[in-house]
């Protein structure tokens, strides 16, 4: 009997302890009772505590209600405060009534001392960056850029039916990894070029976002290889048991016809969707306050619904969210229970700070708990990359991801939004997590990434894919790899199976360009070094007189193998006339030329927008989906913007 009492007591204690750790997440929207418009900047506080939050610029909020607390206080200048008791529902929408002492006047001042004269007055100082990025607390603009809009100041509808241009993107508030362009290498002293493949395409859709907003992208936002690899190319897949086929094409460089341009293209085998292995997915969703914009969390929700539509009964998906803390909002669920998954997505709301590190740790735990040994185990992170709480620095995040990827769980990243977009963090996470990185700037891009390219986005057919090119100095004086600056490997890494590299998914294609200075040509870009003072000159190596220009070595691993396989291809010194090259060669070359112009590359030589656009038009080919035509339009816009930028620079100098 004593044992029974002890067991009951311990059980009750365990249940009590469990309850003490449970918090409720209360979310909703605060409106004005007068006009039913949402109110930004309302303070919501847990009664009897210091825990508080504010509504975002759309009036939305999320707050954690500790166990034992049942009341929330709502307060905002110009409105009557309310104290509301929380009942069973976790959704609480509130209507605030105006107070008698309301704000009747809005004064805009310049740079002068501000004196508070009335009890009901309020003054706020707004920085230029905040104005440009539409980040003024207590001020909300409703309506699309260019349309009739309503400005709400402290919740009051003060100015209506005015027109505004789209907000300027402040690039200095977005972060990008610095890119140091690959320089020309001497083929005698450096005959080997080694790099990892990269199938990411985030840079192109980010470039599109800037151009559509009437701005040129920052130079470090332009990754030429990602812009090229955004597009599909007419490449034959492997005809044997190899997972990847190698294609090459050689011609002259349009920006310097004395130079050669070599295209190396890889095509992964395509696996029919019905034959793909089962997936264990974890959606890791950033629901912090920075995700409240319409082009962030609402677009995330639409994207995830598209991905959910592709899931099969044998697939499973869980959902983890993070803001001030991380939590599981959907346990691992079969892919055929779509209504359950949709409901979890619909209930997402933004609010709070960003504990990204805690969210990633929890996502890895959920993925590990449901690991499929012969399946596809992947975390899909949707965020603007603005990690500011927890394991937030890039180095800490890298270590976390590198440690966890050995378990066979990949991490892919979907980036959203503008203004505080942290490209550097998201690129790092995807690279270290053996996953893909895409920037979703609109619903069409979401459809392309998550439906049209579903297999390639999720299912790996070749991992740790590396390329090593050996140049023949008898044919090549110098060479330069265009792009892939963050994928360069040491020559010894090529044979090292422990060295991580990029993966290729079902149907993926990868293109790399080398600009080659042929042997015997006098050229300003040929590397040169003065003779050494303290060493005798080395004897020149014996150079093969073969007609081979170079040899391509390709190394990869099967998805479930730790030992790599090797294949090779030889390229002869037989260039085709540029106008005789394939449409794919022309179009990809035009992207490379535009990329150099956007970066203001020191290697752009005679590159110019008009030439690149004409080449793109010549290589448009069968453009059923219209993506190549879209690029041509964007390039034409970039040409105009570059002229405007040049004129502005001249005026500033004067």
From TrEMBL:
CDD domains: vWA_subgroup
Gene3D superfamilies in the cross-refs: Carboxypeptidase-like, regulatory domain (2.60.40.1120), von Willebrand factor, type A domain (3.40.50.410)
SMART domains: VWA
Keyword Signal: yes
Keyword Membrane: no
Keywords: Signal
Ranges of residues in domain VWFA: 280-458
Signal sequence interval, chain numbering: 1-19
InterPro entries (alphabetical): CarboxyPept-like_regulatory, CLCR, Uncharacterised_YfbK_N, VWF_A, vWFA_dom_sf, YfbK_C
PANTHER family on file: CALCIUM-ACTIVATED CHLORIDE CHANNEL REGULATOR, ZINC FINGER (C3HC4-TYPE RING FINGER) FAMILY PROTEIN
Listed name of the protein: von Willebrand factor type A domain-containing protein
Species of the source: Mucilaginibacter segetis
């Amino acid at each position: 009997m004593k044992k029974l009492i002890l067991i009951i007591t311990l059980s009750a204690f365990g249940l009590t302890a469990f309850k003490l750790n449970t918090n409720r997440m209360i979310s909703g929207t605060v409106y004005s009772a007068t006009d039913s418009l949402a109110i930004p900047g309302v303070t919501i506080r847990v009664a009897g505590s210091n825990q508080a939050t504010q509504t975002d610029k759309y009036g939305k909020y999320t707050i954690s209600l500790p166990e034992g607390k049942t009341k929330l206080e709502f307060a905002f200048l110009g409105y009557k405060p309310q104290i509301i008791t929380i009942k069973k529902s976790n959704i609480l929408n509130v209507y605030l009534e105006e107070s008698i002492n309301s704000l009747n006047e809005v004064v805009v001042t310049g740079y002068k001392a501000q004196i508070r004269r009335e009890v009901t007055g309020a003054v706020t100082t707004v920085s230029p960056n905040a104005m440009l990025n539409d980040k003024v607390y207590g001020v909300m603009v409703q309506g699309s850029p260019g349309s009739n809009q309503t400005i709400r100041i402290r919740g009051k509808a003060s100015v209506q039916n005015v027109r505004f241009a789209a907000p300027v993107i402040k690039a200095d508030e977005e972060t990008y990894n610095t890119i140091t362009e690959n320089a020309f290498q001497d083929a005698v002293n450096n005959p080997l070029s080694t790099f990892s493949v990269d199938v990411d395409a985030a840079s192109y859709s980010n470039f599109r976002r800037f151009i559509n907003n009437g701005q040129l992208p920052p130079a470090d936002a332009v990754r030429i290889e990602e812009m090229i690899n955004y597009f599909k190319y007419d490449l034959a897949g492997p005809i044997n048991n190899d997972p990847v086929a190698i294609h090459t094409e050689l011609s002259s460089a349009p920006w310097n016809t004395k130079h050669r341009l070599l295209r190396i293209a890889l095509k992964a085998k395509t696996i029919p969707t019905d034959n793909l292995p089962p997936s264990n997915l974890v959606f890791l969703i950033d629901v912090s306050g920075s995700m409240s914009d319409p082009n962030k969390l609402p677009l995330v929700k639409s994207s995830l619904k598209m991905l959910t539509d592709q899931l099969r009964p044998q697939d499973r998906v869980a959902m983890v969210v993070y803001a001030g803390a991380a939590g599981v909002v959907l346990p691992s669920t079969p892919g055929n229970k779509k209504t359950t998954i949709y409901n979890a997505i619909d209930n997402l709301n933004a609010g709070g700070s960003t504990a990204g590190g805690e969210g990633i740790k929890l996502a890895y735990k959920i993925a590990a708990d449901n690991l499929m040994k012969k399946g596809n185990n992947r975390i899909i992170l949707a965020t603007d990359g603005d990690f500011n709480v927890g394991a937030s620095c890039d180095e800490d995040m890298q270590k976390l991801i590198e440690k966890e990827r050995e378990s066979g769980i990949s991490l892919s990243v979907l980036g959203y939004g503008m203004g505080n977009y942290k490209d550097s963090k998201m690129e790092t996470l995807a690279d270290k997590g053996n996953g893909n990185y895409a920037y979703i700037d609109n619903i069409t891009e979401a459809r392309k990434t998550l439906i049209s390219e579903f297999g390639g986005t999720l299912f790996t057919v070749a991992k740790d894919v590396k390329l090593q090119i050996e140049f023949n100095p008898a044919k090549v004086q110098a060479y330069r790899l265009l792009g892939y600056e963050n994928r360069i490997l040491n020559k010894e890494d090529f044979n090292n199976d422990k060295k991580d590299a990029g993966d290729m998914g079902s149907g993926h294609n990868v293109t790399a360009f080398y600009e080659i200075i042929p042997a015997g040509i006098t050229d300003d870009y040929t590397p040169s070094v003065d003779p050494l003072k303290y060493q005798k000159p080395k004897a020149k190596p014996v150079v093969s007189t073969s007609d081979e220009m170079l040899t391509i070595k390709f190394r990869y691993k099967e998805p479930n193998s730790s030992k790599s396989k090797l294949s090779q291809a030889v390229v002869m010194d037989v260039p085709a006339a540029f106008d005789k090259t394939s449409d794919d060669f022309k179009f990809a070359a035009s992207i490379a030329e535009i990329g150099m112009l956007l970066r203001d590359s020191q290697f752009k030589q005679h590159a110019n927008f008009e030439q690149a656009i004409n080449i793109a038009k010549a290589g448009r080919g069968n453009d059923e989906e219209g993506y190549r035509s879209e690029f041509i339009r964007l390039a034409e816009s970039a040409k105009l913007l570059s002229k405007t930028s040049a004129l502005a620079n001249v005026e500033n100098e004067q």
